[in-house]
Structures are given as C-alpha cells and as structure tokens.
Amino acid sequence: xxxxxxxxxxxxxxxxxxxxxxxxxxxxxxxxxxxxxxxxxxxxxxxxxxxxxxxxxxxxxxxxxxxxxxxxxxxxxxxxxxxxxxxxxxxxxxxxxxxxxxxxxxxxxxxxxxxxxxxxxxxxxxxxxxxxxxxxxxxxxxxxxxxxxxxxxxxxxxxxxxxxxxxxxxxxxxxxxxxxxxxxxxxxxxxxxxxxxxxxxxxxxxxxxxxxxxxxxxxxxxxxxxxxxxxxxxxxxxxxxxxxxxxxxxxxxxxxxxxxxxxxxxxxxxxxxxxxxxxxxxxxxxxxxxxxxxxxxxxxxxxxxxxxxxxxxxxxxxxxxxxxxxxxxxxxxxxxxxxxxxxxxxxxxxxxxxxxxxxxxxxxxxxxxxxxxxxxxxxxxxxxxxxxxxxxxxxxxxxxxxxxxxxxxxxxxxxxxxxxxxxxxxxxxxxxxxxxxxxxxxxxxxxxxxxxxxxxxxxxxxxxxxxxxxxxxxxxxxxxxxxxxxxxxxxxxxxxxxxxxxxxxxxxxxxxxxxxxxxxxxxxxxxxxxxxxxxxxxxxxxxxxxxxxxxxxxxxxxxxxxxxxxxxxxxxxxxxxxxxxxxxxxxxxxxxxxxxxxxxxxxxxxxxxxxxxxxxxxxxxxxxxxxxxxxxxxxxxxxxxxxxxxxxxxxxxxxxxxxxxxxxxxxxxxxxxxxxxxxxxxxxxxxxxxxxxxxxxxxxxxxxxxxxxxxxxxxxxxxxxxxxxxxxxxxxxxxxxxxxxxxxxxxxxxxxxxxxxxxxxx
Length: 762
Ligand code: ZN
Ligand code: ZN
Ligand code: FE
Fold this sequence. Notes:
Layout: E1 4-13, H1 19-30, E2 33-39, E3 42-49, H2 51-64, E4 70-79, E5 87-89, H3 110-117, H4 160-167, E6 188-192, E7 197-200, H5 206-216, E8 221-224, E9 229-234, H6 238-248, E10 256-259, H7 262-268, E11 269-270, H8 273-280, E12 286-291, E13 307-312, H9 316-325, E14 329-333, H10 345-351, E15 358-362, E16 374-378, E17 381-386, E18 395-397, E19 406-408, E20 418-421, E21 424-427, H11 437-454, E22 460-464, H12 470-477, E23 482-486, H13 488-499, E24 506-516, E25 522-530, E26 535-541, E27 544-545, H14 551-554, H15 556-567, H16 578-581, H17 585-597, E28 603-604, H18 607-619, H19 629-637, E29 649-653, E30 656-660, H20 662-673, H21 678-704, E31 709-712, H22 719-729, E32 735-737, H23 748-761
Parallel strand pairs: 2-5, 8-15, 10-13, 12-16, 19-22, 22-23, 24-31, 26-30, 31-32
Antiparallel strand pairs: 1-3, 1-4, 2-3, 6-7, 6-15, 8-9, 9-14, 10-14, 11-12, 12-13, 16-17, 18-21, 19-20, 20-21, 24-25, 25-26, 27-28, 29-30
Helix pairs in contact: 1-2, 5-9, 13-23, 15-17, 15-18, 15-20, 18-19, 18-21, 20-21, 21-22
Bound molecules: zinc ion (2 copies) and fe (iii) ion.
C-alpha cells in the first residue's frame, strides 16, 4: 500500500510542556515517519505512512496528550507523501502568523523534586532542576517560538550530560528548554544590600543554609522566584512579620504564606477536597483557606482575618529553603505597597533596599514579571481571583471568534488587559492598581510585550467608560483608529459569558464596588439583560451618597451614615450606635450636610458599598485600610446556621426595578440596638441581599423568560453570597459563576474585548 502524507497543526498550550518529545515517541511507536516542529502558532507535524497507521496516529494524538499540554485545535490536511527514514524533531521555524504558544510556568514535578532530595543524584540540592513537565516557561521567554535560544537560558551552554538528556527521546528532559544542572546551569548567590556576595553557591548548601539561618533569626530575605522577587520572613514570628509590615508600609492587607506540602498546609488551615486540589494544582496559586485556630501562625500575617492565603512551594529553591528553615514563610510580592514586584537584580536591590536584609538571588534572568495568582474555592468551584503566574499566557477559547484583533485595556484597579484574535483571547498578567507611575509603566510595557509574543496588530481598542482611568487614557493615546467604550458591568457580564461560551441573552447579575454607568452615576448593583452587542438595565440597587467620593470608601462610617440617613429619613438613632461614638460631632454634621445636599457626594449603586456601610455599623469599624476590607470582614463573620433575613422591597422606578434596602438597614439597626451579636446580623444581612437578588432575577425571568443567569463582579468573590444566591435561583435557573477568569475587575478586559468586537459587528 502506498504511503500517504498528513500535515497536522496543533494549537493550544503545546510548547514547553514536552509535547514534541511525546509526539516523537507516539510516531515511533506507531511506525509513522516524518517530523515535528514548533512554529509560532503551536506545533506542526508532517506524518507519512499507510492510511490506517496515520489515522491511528491522529486519533491517539487527539485522545492522549501529556498532562500539562492543552490541545485547543488539531487540524489535519492531506499532503503529498515523502520518502523519509524515521521520525525527527526539527528546529523551529518562524511562521508568518504568530499565536502565542508559550506555556505558563509549571510547579516543580514529583520526579524533579525526588532528584533534588536524593544525595546520590547529580542534581542533589540543585535549585534550578526542571524537566518537560515542570519549570519556568513564560517568565523566561523573550520571544516566540518557545525555544531555549529565545529564553533567558540562552546564555547557558548545555554540558554534555544535559545535552544528551536534551537530545534523547527516551529521557524526561528531551527538549526541555530550561534544562540545567550544577555543572552548566544558573547559580544561586546570597547578597547583602550593598551587593557584597555572602555565599556564592554552586549546587546549593551555602546560600540556602545561610539564608535559612537568617530567616530563623527574624530577618527579611528577598528571594528571587519565577516571576519576580518575594519578600520572605518567618510566618510564625510576630516580630518578623510586624517588621515586614512596617518596612513594606502595609497596614493590614494579608500576606501569603508558603508551606512545603499539603500535609503542612493542613496544619495551618482547615481544608476541603477542592481546596487541596487547588493547592496542589500545577499552577500553584495562593489559595484563600480557613485558618486553623490556635495554631502558631503570627496573627500579623492576616490581622483579624479568619482566612489565610496559603501556597505550596513551586520551585526547587522554595523546597530547599522551606526544608532548611523548617517553618512556614511569609512570601509576599517584593515591592513597596502597590507597586509591581521587582524582577531584575539591580532593580530589586534599589527598590527593596530598605525592606530586605539579604537577597537570595541567582543569574537566571526573569524576562516577564508575573505575580503569584490567587484563587479560592467558591461554592465548590475553584475560582481564580488574581490571574497571573501559572495561568498566563494560557488562552481562553472563544465560542464566537472575533472578526478583527482586539486589545481591551481593562479597568483601573486590579488591572489586566486582554488581546483577542480569531477564536482565542489572552488575558495579560495581573498588573494591579494603575495609580502609581511604576504600575502604569509596567502596564504599557506588558501590553507591548504581549502584542509582540502574539504577533497581533489590534484593529479595535476597547476601554472602560470612565475618562480618568489610566487604562482609558492609554486607549485614547493609541494609534489604532477604532476605539470602543464599554460599560463596566456590561463588560463583567460579557466576561462571564465568554468564559462559559454563552452567546446570550443572559440575565447578568453584576455586583461590585463601582463602575461608571451610562447615566453618569456609579453603578454596581446591576441586573442586566445582556448579549455581547448590548444590554438593558433591568434592575439596580437604590443608591447611596458617597460623601467625599472615594474618601467614603476608606472612611466607611460615611457610607454607614448615608445609609442610615436614607433609611431613617434623616433621623437615625446615631447616639445609640457604637460606630458613631468615636466620630467627632463636627465631622459628622459636615458629612451629613454633604449627603443631604448632594455636594461632593455622588450617587453610587454598588452592592459593595452596602457591605461596607452595614459592615461598618455591625463591626463598629470607622475606616478600611484597603479597599473592600470591611466588606470582607463583615462577610467572614456571618453565622453559617442563621437562616433569617431582613426585609427589603423591590419596586418599579421608571423603566427599571429598584432594590430598596432601607428596610434592611432598619432591621440591622433594630437588631444592633437589641444587642444581637454581629454574626447573626451579618447572616441576616447576607440572606436579605441574596433574596433581593433572587427576587430581581425572578421578576426579570417573568418578563424575559428563564434565561441563564451569570454571577459576576467583585461581590461574587464572597462565598456566602454566591452560595445563598445560587440556592435561591436553582434549579429554576441555570446559574454560571466564574472559574479561570476572575469575577472582579481582573477579568473585565475579556468582556470588554468581546463587546467591542460585537458592537463593531452590528
Ligand atoms: Zn520536572
Ligand atoms: Zn548540565
Ligand atoms: Fe467591577
């Protein structure tokens, strides 16, 4: 039987995950001749052999890919047969059409860890051990295709043993681009703030041991990781953690804690099955879990917070350091307050000079800054809250391809941007709040870089409606002629639709802190009837006055006062509420006048503001040290067993329905005055909001039919709210919540991209 030929183009996460070596073995097993290579768009295979041999090969290719690879598309075309002997991996070609296929960074695998811990292995205690199933990827990539020559490993010449592994199809390190060993790879060093090398290091030993000793003694050590420097300290030492807070100028925002393995995580936290799975996932996010009470983590790690962000070691260096210190370590981004994390050695020494006592660094450069991701299990579903290392630059497949390449610029806080082309979208790494120069610079640099990796020339630029966002200003300055402003909550809803492949229409419950509406007020308690093309605002929350604008978000007592004045027609029993005892009478009366007259007190519909307002009342908290702090604390205090709910009303206001929470606020005050403890009040408040949401959805469904419901916006990071809302909507409605795309503003850009494409289409 004559041979035939097939060209097989594979798209997805197929570079840097051992995919070509696997194809090679598959081809040899199956008696297929030909070649495989990386191209800028993924992997291309040219296969030759009898028809049934080729069919079997393609079928196995589709069915069996190795674990870290994700196949989005396998396209097969017939090509003329060639007479070739055997099967080979050929060098990459630079394709015309680029599509990023750089994989995300992968946590150290079990096989590599075993070698690092084995005294007889040549990689014993070698901190840069990796293989095709693990190691740095995105963070070391300089260009596509993903090949050693295009990474920061390019300068390290492989020794003969590593070279043999790299070339041996039977080896775990066959074409492992960052392959390295103590003889040829990067080296660790311990440096003090002045740049003096304290412990140069070949395999390990010196530097790790010295750093560990200092950590045990309470020092703060900057540790170079995959996507940037961390600041590490002993998480069991109140003194060390307090010192880190002082130097980093961070009041109460929780620090993440790194532990060696799952067994140790169980020691500090109470874990559910899904949480264990998420902690051990190859993406290794920080997972927010319930702290075990009475255990030895310093309280200053997450002051007054029942949750703690845990993450497992994800590089050999982490494993060695944790084994040596023999205790959990705070691992927080190496930066000052909200700036991007430091990535270069010189930059780290300059920016972290006043914070870190020592620098545990090495000579493998970080090309792409990438923060740790943060995730949480919400109503049994793993939910990414901050999307960065481990997830970026994995593509989000689109059910409806975009017509023209789009760049979506994202929001202002917790920013990420998004590119979309064809049937894929790529969210950039978490950039953070665009309110300092460093962050804005980082933002523009990352956009530039992503654009180069993807080889995309955007034709449409999407942005928020808010004119003062740095991301909006960036959009306006860009050369592309087509700009599309997308309403914030429409973008939230579209982001959830895109993630789940929903075409719409859907009922989108978009609850968050704030986002500019089309009427000039701040929205955030919205129920939208939405498609990608447009939306109708079906319901919202009765707005609150924000006395002093953003100042009210920090001084949450102002929000409480606005809610009380509204609920009690200007005559609330302030004297009896503990919150107001501490507020000077003069300040109180100034704020009340602002609220009453609406002077410097814009209206805000955000559900998050009600959590702040009622949380302030219930907890007696006057101010928040970071955005959403009081809302989060109020959420976490809620009594799980309490089923009662405060009343609310739902009424027509013009074309819309309005959820009126004045009865809820009065109920809260009655209970507080009657001495009901905070957990009960919080639970009834949560139940009231869930009931209100469900009532608004039910009313909309009567008019528009039983459409799918999506839950989106920062408020749906609140597990209790998600569970309560789902319970009231199911099974009458199909309910979708976020997963790999953040529910908060970190997922917004994806929705912006799709709306901008759809609007241009109409
Ligand atoms: Zn490995
Ligand atoms: Zn080597
Ligand atoms: Fe938002």
